[in-house]
Amino acid sequence: MDLSLALLRRGYHALAEERGRHDDADTFAARLLGRHALVLRGADGARVFYDTERVSRVGSVPPPLAGLIFGSGAMHGLDGREHDVRKHLFLDVLDDEAVERLVAVVAERLRDRLVESAGREVDLFALLVEVYGDSVLRWAGVPSHERQRSSLARQMAAIVDGFGGSPRAYARGWAARAHLDRWAGRLVAAQRRSGRTGDATPLARIASLPVPARTAGVELLNLLRPTVAVAWPATWAVVELLRDADLAAQVRGSAGELVRRRVAHEVRRVRPFVPALAGRARIAFTHDGLSVRPGDRLVLDVVGTDTDPAHWSAPDRFDPQRFTDAEPDAYAFVPQGGGCPRNGHRCPGEPLTVRIVEATLEEVGRYDLVSGDPELPDQPMTRMPRRPGPTGRLVLTAR
Ligand code: HEM
């Protein structure tokens, strides 16, 4: 079966099942979108995948998916200098100081919303979508009012929710994409017309990219939308507190800082978001005894790498302690891509993601948590991106 179909039908399990048919080999040959493909797992596979001499991203993700999730013409599908100009701007816009400013906005907004919600049932995921959306829009300097920010945040979440093969979610995602692309393109055009060239907001800096307004709008959304997407790992992280009272106690207060970081890593490892990443061979080469020709597809098995038994002991167990002595390895841990963000496609928003999850655990950790329906099941492994069940009706009580 073509891997695209397997992924749509079997979700996060798809590549493990295909690998099972190849004696659990780290590398195996398959077909993706009608072409020969190599599926790569583990740190060695990730090193190949992130070798820009051998692997290109141009045309690696088909437009029906790339257009929805990244937007048309986004940096995700670019190589070389064109990619690097945009990527370096993103890394500058998301430098440590800017990340801390945004995290402070998130923490303050979240604190207010949790105070308002205490004692009542809340849908934590929906609340986080609104809080992160509101915060990132204000931080980015996007002129807007509060109700508009809530609506924009929900539309950004709809785009993210649409990538995984649920036909209804996919249609909702495209409706949101069409609307948000127009909105962001107009915003960039207005920013350019304003002539405020000294303006240093993230909006102004992205508007200054030497690309058409619509493309700059797409990249602006690539800053805003994935910040809203942090609601997925953050909700999973809170579920771990709900399911483990000892862990809930450990993440509290200043003493919990290191534990919060470890939970932020572990939750991204075992609660996958992206199942796989795709590239195309630039040149002919051989890896693990299997060959590719130029144009063939390369698939990095993200789930398989993050749970590769060669690197992780008891890989399926949620165990934040595994990060006690070291930060994750750049190639063995790839929930947001691997290698070096400056020279490749690794996610530039990874430090921000970690900090937002940490801040969320700190704020939510001020409360005792009870699920209004502890039996609410997690979404199945075929549903991408997958969400947990019991936070749908969460009651928070001040401690
Ligand atoms: C739920 C949290 C997030 C997840 C799971 C995630 C995951 C990823 C993955 C898997 C990639 C592709 C890596 C590759 O192609 O090699 C990526 C790229 C990217 N991410 Fe994230 N990300 C998240 C949050 C963020 C945030 C918060 C931002 C920005 C504020 C961001 C901006 C980007 C951009 C611009 C790229 C394209 C990088 C490039 O092509 O060079 N992401 N992300």
UniProtKB/TrEMBL annotation:
Q: What is this protein's name?
A: Cytochrome P450
Cofactor(s) named in the record: heme
Q: Which SUPFAM superfamilies match?
A: Cytochrome P450 (SSF48264)
Question: Upper taxonomic classification of the species?
Answer: Bacteria, Bacillati, Actinomycetota, Actinomycetes, Propionibacteriales
Listed A to Z, the keywords are: Heme, Iron, Metal-binding, Monooxygenase, Oxidoreductase
Pfam families with a match to the protein in the record: p450
Instruction: Say which domain of life the source belongs to.
Output: Bacteria
Q: Where is this region: Disordered?
A: 373-399
The record's similarity note reads: Belongs to the cytochrome P450 family.
Concerning PANTHER family, the annotation shows:
CYTOCHROME P450 26, LANOSTEROL 14-ALPHA DEMETHYLASE
Q: Which Gene3D superfamilies match?
A: Cytochrome P450
